[in-house]
Design a protein that fits this description.
Layout (H helix, E strand, L loop, with lengths): L1 E2 L41 H9 L6 E5 L8 E4 L2 E6 L2 E8 L3 E4 L8 E4 L21 H5 L2 H6 L4 H9 L4 E3 L21 E2 L9 H6 L5 H13 L9 H13 L3 H12 L11 H13 L14
Antiparallel strand pairs: 1-8, 2-5, 3-4, 4-5, 5-9, 6-7
Helix pairs in contact: 1-6, 6-7
């Protein structure tokens, strides 16, 4: 598997406003996500715990699902949710605030939802090649290739020309898929106290989740035991509190970008030099790790 990622960020950015017909739907299975975040990458329990332990719990966001046909359901805030044993199922991924990015051949920066760790200047991941880099990201698009499913790389190439997927042989050491039968308690979690989610589900559905809302699910994910519905309460409580109190450069940058952002897909109104200075002010000066630039990759 070999990719050409320079200037792309197709799997890190919500590029539906640029080309709605070409972008994917973010449907990874029969259960529609409750939110509208594009291409949320599910994290493992250990990855979620690592972010929390590193003071980056404010970079995390939960995703619940509408039920598929014949799914067990639980209703919260008037919304039917996919459930297991009466508990809503969810995954945890990385937040995607609006950022001033110019991906996939665009001529100037636009406000697009982008991964919290994507450097808008270089379009590189700030945690690539670190122990925080998610497994889902490092193996993409391996599972798509294994299943013969379209990849974001192919969508980008079809929309903007060129070749992004240079070798379509999936890795030999590809891990089990995030939504496979082994996923319960490892990448797919069950919230143990659905009665506590009154109001929370409505805010998640409407894109208005609070830090406490997100921390509830982060804590439940960290407290989960792989292969079961069991949750270690002390571990859940400690992780929830740490996630709620997190105040990292990621959270500060998300607040700053959200306050500045225009509508989805709207032109930022800054040249790239001015945009790059703004990125340094909002992210780099706040403590974001740097990226090497594409020349360093060659």
């Amino acid at each position: 598997m070999e990719l050409d990622c320079e200037g792309c960020a197709g799997c890190c950015v919500d590029w539906r406003p640029l080309d709605p017909a070409a972008a994917g739907s973010d449907r990874t299975g029969p259960r529609p996500p409750l939110d509208d975040v594009y291409a949320l990458a599910p994290l493992t329990r250990d990855e979620v715990a690592r972010f929390v332990d590193d003071g980056l719990g404010d970079a995390l966001a939960p995703r619940l699902f509408e039920p598929a046909e014949r799914d067990e359901t639980v209703t919260v805030d008037g919304t039917d949710l996919a459930a297991v044993d009466g508990r809503p199922v969810f995954v945890v991924g990385l937040r995607k605030p609006p950022k001033p990015v110019a991906p996939i051949g665009t001529d100037e920066p636009r406000w697009l939802g982008a991964c919290a760790f994507l450097d808008p200047t270089t379009l590189q991941c700030r945690i690539h090649d670190t122990d925080r880099y998610p497994r889902t990201c490092s193996t993409y698009p391996g599972h798509n290739l294994e299943l013969g499913a379209e990849t974001e790389c192919e969508r980008v190439a079809a929309a903007s020309g060129g070749e992004r997927l240079l070798d379509d042989e999936p890795p030999a050491d590809l891990p089990a898929p995030a939504f496979g039968p082994q996923a319960l308690g490892a990448t797919v979690f069950a919230y143990p106290d659905p009665a506590d989610l009154d109001g929370v589900v409505a805010r998640l559905r409407d894109g208005e989740a609070t830090a406490d809302d997100r921390a509830r699910f982060v804590g439940a994910a960290v407290g989960s035991r792989p292969g079961s519905l069991s949750v270690t309460r002390d571990r859940m409580s400690d992780a929830r509190e740490a996630a709620r109190e997190a105040d990292s450069w990621v959270g500060a940058a998300i607040r700053a970008w959200t306050e500045r952002a225009g509508d989805d897909g709207e032109r930022v109104g800054l040249g790239r030099d001015a945009r790059d200075r703004l990125v340094r002010e909002v992210e780099d000066d706040a403590g974001a790790p740097g990226t090497p630039g594409w020349d360093a990759e060659r």
